[in-house]
Prior knowledge:
Layout: H1 7-24, E1 43-48, E2 55-61, E3 69-75, H2 89-98, E4 101-105, H3 120-136, E5 139-149, H4 151-162, E6 169-173, H5 179-186, H6 192-202, H7 210-218, E7 233-238, H8 251-260, H9 269-278, E8 299-305, E9 308-313, H10 321-329
Helix pairs in contact: 5-6
Amino acid sequence: MNTRIDASALSSLTATILITLIGSGLAEEPNDTKxxxxxxxxxxxxxxxxxxxxxxxxxxxxxxxxxxxxxxxxLHSWSGDYRQAGGEVVYARWCIEKDWHFIHPNFRGxxxxxxxxxxxxxxxxxxxxxxYMKKNHQVDTDRIYLIGASGGGHASxxxxxxxxxxxxxxxxxxxxxxxxxxxxxxxxGSHAKYADHIEKSVGGRPDEVESAMRECVxxxxxxxxxxxxxxxxxxxxxxxxxxxxxxVPFTHSLHAFNRVVAERDxxxxxxxxxxxxxxxxxxxxxxxxxxxxxxxxxxxxRKVSKDTRVTIFEGKHEIIHHAGLxxxxxxxxxxxxxxxxxxxYHLKAEESESESGK
Length: 358
């Protein structure tokens, strides 16, 4: 008997299997191998990506309560992937204690390939990951939340604009909002590797290759944030970021805010430039009220416009998990943003507020 399978038969068989996977919503059974650095409740699975019919990995922790529960989507940083076990682990601990669903998708891994760095595949992978959870677990669709820092902040802002109907709340920390501007800012100095990452992702120098320039626009949250006007969106950055405290100037956060809100509520460009240059709020600005969610880190500048807020705090390139997660927990899809958080929740386990690296 001839046991050889020619290429066309193999391709047909693969297509049949993938179609079956699409129809069932099934990917793979959870891998019970302990994920280094993550709580034991967190498992690795693979789900079907609609963009290219590949199986993509993510970490998952399902709620124990079989009624509909909130879903938290945590996003890894610029140079990380779905197994990254830094401050992202706090997301899982929150969900375990609150009995929420949690996922940590790969969205094509570190941002130095064409498939990663805000590509269409990234967007569809994150949407597919949420769809997988909705199909296979009891998810409260009015309480699907998105959070990320640095490269995860970039992807969070991107998803706020490209898939605004999904989210009850988006919490973006120290994000990149304009890929070409960041490339220009990083071309020289100690963080030049990020400019190299961008060139690899977009296919060349955006100041020399027109297609690379177009890719920068396509992968930048600023291109889509006008669609996020009805998303409950909270943008945060530390005041020393871009200087001694990190690699992403906090101006990215202020310009992201301006892209969402009405013209009358935008922060003047001269104010932004002076604020960044001085690393201090220009004289005459109103001092924000203290926010207990930020702990010992004072809020230096804050502006709210309807369902969008930007905060510059006394910090560096970092995320304050306590602030981001407590704020998200108050939000509901289709409802106005809630900015006052009462009865804030403190994790029972010791919380690590370490810097979220790139």
